[in-house]
Write a structure and sequence with these properties.
By secondary structure, this protein is of the alpha/beta class. The chain folds into two domains: about 190 residues, Rossmann fold; about 140 residues, Response regulator (Rossmann fold), CATH 3.40.50.2300. It is about 45% helix and about 20% strand. It is built from twelve helices and 14 strands. The strands form three sheets. A seven-stranded mixed β-sheet has the order 7-6-8-9-10-13-14, with helices on both faces. Strands 2-1-3-4-5 form a five-stranded parallel β-sheet, with helices on both faces. A two-stranded antiparallel sheet has the order 11-12. The radius of gyration is 25 Å and the shape is globular. The N and C termini lie far apart (about 90 Å).
Length: about 375
């Protein structure tokens, strides 16, 4: 009988201490889960900008791996949804990710950043928009830009055309969307303030690959230069079809001309085109490793927008782990307070706002597909 009692006592003790050990372990596991930083990515993985979305996703994944190696106690978990560069698909992707408890997002493109702005105000969720359109950040205090704004880049382009190339009249061709309109309007304002004259502004369809009739109307005005705003294959079509005519005066564009997915459509036709682009600091610690990994994954070199994509996730994650208390409001204030932070895209910061500040350069495309800096 005593033997049975002792066995029962031992069993009870084992259950008690074993149960406590299990409870403590489960608490530690729960704490680790709570420390996980959830970030959502809404990217165009299909549709006309699908390749750009895949490029950005590669950058974000590299950033997650690098961040998690340095912050193993507060790792990032990245969840991605295809926004298709479509308003309804973008909203659906947002609601799905928000339903998983995600409050922080990296979003690619002007249109997706626009349509999510009202939702960020309503739900107090934070978006890092890899977007150029000027009013993206004006629609919500919860949207940060992690790329350069159109007005910032077009002023640099206008100043170069006026001050360095000494050209007093130009034509403008712009894609028929908000990005094209803002680019053309921003450039026109800056160029006219410099005393320049716009001889014609021509709008070409976003999806058209034959723009010869639009090019002909522009060339009929005999401009001393042509400034082209566009993206992807549409921009490539304009450059190609201007070059077909034998036009031998300066052509200028924005940073999209250097994107590999655009350049592959223009081949050597882009040689000589001037464009404005942020500076990649190849001497920055970690850049070489990032560039190697990116090329291994995507089979092409990284350009400035890929550096911004990588840094946007790391900056957002840094703001989250360094905020106390860890609320979206405190993260918003922390991110806004970043200033002159060393990154692969130069000294980066928001100077108390939500507009990204990073150094720019005027570059010129070369025959081999590389770009040469002509002015910083």
């Amino acid at each position: 009988m005593k033997k049975v009692i002792w066995i029962l006592v031992i069993v009870v003790l084992v259950v008690m201490f074993g149960g406590r050990a299990w409870y403590l372990q489960s608490q530690k596991t729960a704490e680790r889960v709570d420390n996980t930083i959830k970030i959502g990515a809404i990217l165009p993985m299909s549709g006309i900008y699908g390749e750009e979305g895949k490029d950005v996703l590669a950058c974000l994944k590299i950033a997650v791996d690098d961040f998690n190696r340095q912050h193993s106690q507060t790792p990032v978990k990245l969840s991605m949804e295809d926004g298709k560069y479509d308003s309804q698909a973008t909203i659906s992707a947002y609601h799905k990710l928000a339903g998983e408890g995600i409050k922080y997002f990296v979003v690619y493109g002007d249109n997706p950043s626009y349509v999510l702005a009202p939702l960020t105000k309503e739900n107090k969720t934070l978006v890092m928009g890899i977007a150029a359109a000027d009013n993206v950040t004006q629609l919500s205090d919860w949207v940060f830009r992690s790329w350069i704004s159109t007005s910032y880049s077009t002023k640099a382009l206008a100043d170069f055309l006026s001050d360095d190339l000494k050209i007093q009249n130009t034509a403008v061709m712009r894609i028929n969307n908000n990005y094209g309109k803002e680019g053309a309007d921003g450039f026109t304002k800056a160029y006219q303030n410099n005393g320049g004259k716009i001889v014609i502004q021509e709008t070409y369809p976003q999806d058209s690959r034959d723009v010869r009739s639009f090019v002909a109307k522009v060339l009929d005005k005999k401009p001393d230069s042509i400034v082209v705003f566009g993206f992807g294959a549409g921009l490539a079509a304009v450059i190609n079809q201007i070059m077909e005519t034998g036009y031998d005066k300066p052509i200028l564009s924005e940073t999209a001309i250097s994107f590999p997915n655009t350049y592959e459509h223009v081949a050597n036709n882009a040689a000589g085109v001037y464009f404005v682009e942020p500076i990649i600091d190849s001497n920055y610690q970690g850049y070489s490793d990032f560039a190697t990994k990116y090329k291994e994954q995507r089979g092409k070199p990284a350009v400035a927008i890929h550096g911004f994509s990588y840094e946007s996730l790391k900056l957002l994650a840094e703001a989250i782990i360094s905020s106390q208390p860890q609320t979206t409001e405190s993260v918003r204030l922390k991110l806004s307070g970043f200033n002159n932070k060393p990154t692969m895209v130069g000294k980066f910061g928001y100077d108390g706002g939500r507009e990204a500040h990073a150094p720019l350069a005027i570059k010129q495309m070369q025959q081999d597909g590389t770009a040469k800096i002509v002015k910083e």
